[in-house]
Each structure stands twice: as structure tokens, then as C-alpha cells.
Amino acid sequence: MAGGFLITLYEYSPLFYISVVSLCFVITAAMVLGWVGFDVPVILRSSDDTESILPTPEKQMVQVTNPFSLEMGSGSASVTNGVWLKPYCLEPCILSCFWGCEVSALQRALQAHQGVSRLSNPQHFREALYGFYHHCQSIYISSEDREERFICIPPEQALSDFGPLPRQRYPLVSVLTLAEQEARDTYNIVASVTVIHVPDDKYNLSARILFQYLLTSQGNMYELKALFMSANSGGESGHPTDPIVRPSEPEEEEETGKEVEDEEDDKGLSERQGKDCVVCQNAAINRVLLPCRHACVCDSCFSHFSHCPICRAFIQESFALTLGSAAFEQ
Predict the structure, then answer these.
(1) What is the mean pLDDT of residues 263-288?
(2) Is 126 exposed, middle or buried (0-12, 13-18, 19+ CB in 10 A)?
(3) Burial (CB count within 10 angstroms: exposed 0-12, middle 13-18, buried 19+), residue 279
(4) In whole angstroms, what is the distance from residue 248 CA to residue 55 CA?
(5) Entry pTM
């Protein structure tokens, strides 16, 4: 029937119309065959079919133990009044703080580590910075030490700001290095560099961590970046404190126990919802999407998406998120 139709069209129509109708016939036949289940060329498939068929490559991750961690302290921070830092280490380490470090000097030092030099102790960092900083302070941190450390510029320097914008100096660069040579031979990561903004008289933005880099013994440098979770996990990364238990009156004992139980149920429900997949709302989140770094879906739902459900960015790679006890708790 189709052949007779084409012959009739050839006798009474120009060649252009025959070509158009033939092309439409081929495309229609390919779509019908695709719906039935026959394999058709990729160029004839719809965009939805292509997204569902082509798998997203999985990034191969390597587990590395990081012996360093540095966070902002709870106290107020400023150039004139100092700043509080919370270092945590698996091994004894040295905390070196460089006030007013030049941006170009730090970049040269990091490039030197990736080249011939290896920055694995405070002396190496001082030599690599060539004195392009205002003040340096070093503190010994033991592996059991969990106290906040106060870092400040000596008052005799009378330093209240680091000049107008754009800045040529970082307010504070904190470096954590291992104190013992045996530990440097054991861990692949030998130093942690943290760039911190500290408010001053000319730029009063609140204190925060700008960049964090990990330096390895092979001369590699990795920038630490946070994962964007789908919901608030209830402060999992913080340090849980023991609840304060207050004695209750005898006549209020039963009612108080019921309220505590309800609060625990609500807390458990909110924590569970914070870890659930945003698509199915049932399975746990165990997949991180790249390059947007959103952790929001489970393995089952991940196979059906080519765009992030949160920001709609195209998924180039992914890796599995292990929700277990980390080697080093922050």
C-alpha cells in the first residue's frame, strides 16, 4: 500500500514532495519500531529515551585518612581582638597562624609544594612564604586536645586592618602540620592550609573560612568542598553534648516522661526525614551528584535522572556516599 502510494505521488507530484514524504515515512517507521522494542539509531530516539538509557559515569573514590580538622571557635573574632580556633588532630601537630599573609606568596608556596619542594613542617612554610606576612604564631596541639585556641596579633604591631579592597593579603592563614616524623611517614596527608577571613576596621564581614587545602606527601593539593545536603541533618557534624537531666516533681513524673518521649519521637522523625531521598522519600541518601555536589537521592532513584532534582544542573559524574562512622569525627 505504501509502495503504491509513493508510485502515485511520483506520477502526479514533483520530486521535492516525494523526498519529503519519504523522509517522514522513514522517521514514522523508526518511531513505531522503537515503541515496539526494536533497536533504532540514537539520532532517531527522543531526548527522554536517551537520558534514561545512557548511564551516568561513577567517579572512583579513594579513601584517605585526614589527620587534621580546623573550625572556627565560638568566641567573637576581629583583627584587633583576635580569633578563636578549634583544631582537632589524630596525631600531635603544630598549628601555625600567619597574619596578613600575601595572596601571591601563599600561591607561590602552594605551587612550590606541587613542584620540587614539599611543605610538611612549619619551617618549610616560613621559608616558602619568604617573610611576606605580618606575624606568625605557632602552637603545639596534642591528639587528645579538644580546647579552643586564641590567636591574636601582638598589640605593639598596632595593626587594625589589611588595607582597602581589593585585598592583597589574607587576614589569617592557619597551617596544621604533623609534629612527629613517624606520623608524616604514616599519613599521606602532611599538611592542612586554611584561609580565614577576620573582620577589621575597613571590612567588617563576619569571620569565616574561605578556603581549605590538603597537601599530600606526593606533592598533590586538594581543595576541600562541602556537600550540599537536601535537608538539615540536625548537626551531625558537630560535637553532641550530653543532655542535662533535671529532677521532676513526683506528681509530674508521668506527664514529663510522656513529653520527653514525644520530643524524642519528633526528633527522630525530623532526623530521618533529613536523610531520606527527596524523590521517593523512603530510602536513605547515598549518592552525591557532580559537579553541583548535591547529596539528595538514593541509588534507586538516581538511575532515572540526568539532572539534579535540586538545582537542575546536568549530572556529569557521581559517587557513593557512605553514611558510616568516619575515621575522624569533627
Answers:
(1) 68
(2) middle
(3) middle
(4) 58
(5) 0.66
